């Protein structure tokens, strides 16, 4: 079982990576966007989106999806940050998971954009990633995790 950071701790997860070549997602594998779109019943479903997929096709069913995994095939590909922000701004309240080749140093910023679970392609980075989640205690700018800028929070 893959391990990830979820709710501030390292835990195991039953979801396996997508099988992109399959017409439908095998049991316990995250469906790709095209596999997810072919589901008749999206209630309680999960989906993994790739860079270039966008989130527009998910928007009509946000209330039905319990997990959206966003793949980061390269740590330099920042589209996933925008996908997370847009999903949260549009009201998505389920689990939003970053998966792939991001760096432990990016976890803090991924969380600020709306991610609440993190699955590294290299599980040896889990401990370092966990430490990065609490590296900053205060922020000047507002973000998804705290929309009020610092000057608005001060009384």
Q: Trace the largest sheet across and list its strands.
A: 2-1-6-5-4-3
Gap between N and C termini: 47 Å
How much of the residues is beta strand, in percent?
15-25%
Question: What is the mean pLDDT?
Answer: 91
Kindly describe this structure.
This protein is an alpha/beta fold and 155 residues long. The protein is 22% helix and 20% strand. The protein contains five helices and six strands, in the order E-E-H-E-E-H-E-H-E-H-H. The protein has helices at 33-37, 79-89, 107-113, 126-132, 150-153; strands at residues 3-6, 9-12, 45-49, 65-72, 95-100, 117-120. Strands 2-1-6-5-4-3 form a six-stranded mixed sheet. Helix 2 (79-89) links the parallel strand 4 and strand 5 (95-100). The radius of gyration is 16 Å and the shape is globular.
Quick tags:
155 residues, alpha/beta, six-stranded mixed β-sheet, 5 helices, 6 strands, 22% helix, 20% strand, globular
Could you provide a short overview of the structure?
The chain is α/β, with parallel strands linked by helices.
Protein topology:
Layout lengths: L2 E4 L2 E4 L20 H5 L7 E5 L15 E8 L6 H11 L5 E6 L6 H7 L3 E4 L5 H7 L17 H4 L2
Parallel strand pairs: 3-4, 4-5, 5-6
Antiparallel strand pairs: 1-2, 1-6
């Amino acid at each position: 079982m893959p391990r990830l950071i979820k709710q501030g701790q390292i835990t195991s997860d039953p979801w396996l990576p997508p099988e992109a070549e399959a017409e439908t997602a095998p049991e316990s594998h995250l469906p790709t966007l095209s596999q997810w779109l072919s589901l008749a019943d999206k209630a309680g479903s999960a989906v993994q989106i790739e860079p270039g997929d966008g989130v527009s096709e998910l928007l009509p069913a946000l209330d039905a999806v319990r997990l959206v995994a966003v793949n980061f095939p390269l740590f330099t590909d920042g589209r996933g940050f925008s996908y997370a922000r847009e999903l949260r701004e549009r009201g998505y309240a389920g689990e939003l998971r970053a998966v792939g080749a991001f760096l432990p140093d990016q976890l803090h910023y991924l969380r600020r954009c709306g991610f609440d679970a993190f699955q590294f392609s290299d599980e040896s980075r889990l401990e370092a990633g966990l430490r990065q989640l609490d590296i900053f205690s205060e922020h000047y700018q507002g973000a998804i995790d705290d929309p009020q800028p610092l000057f608005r929070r001060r009384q």
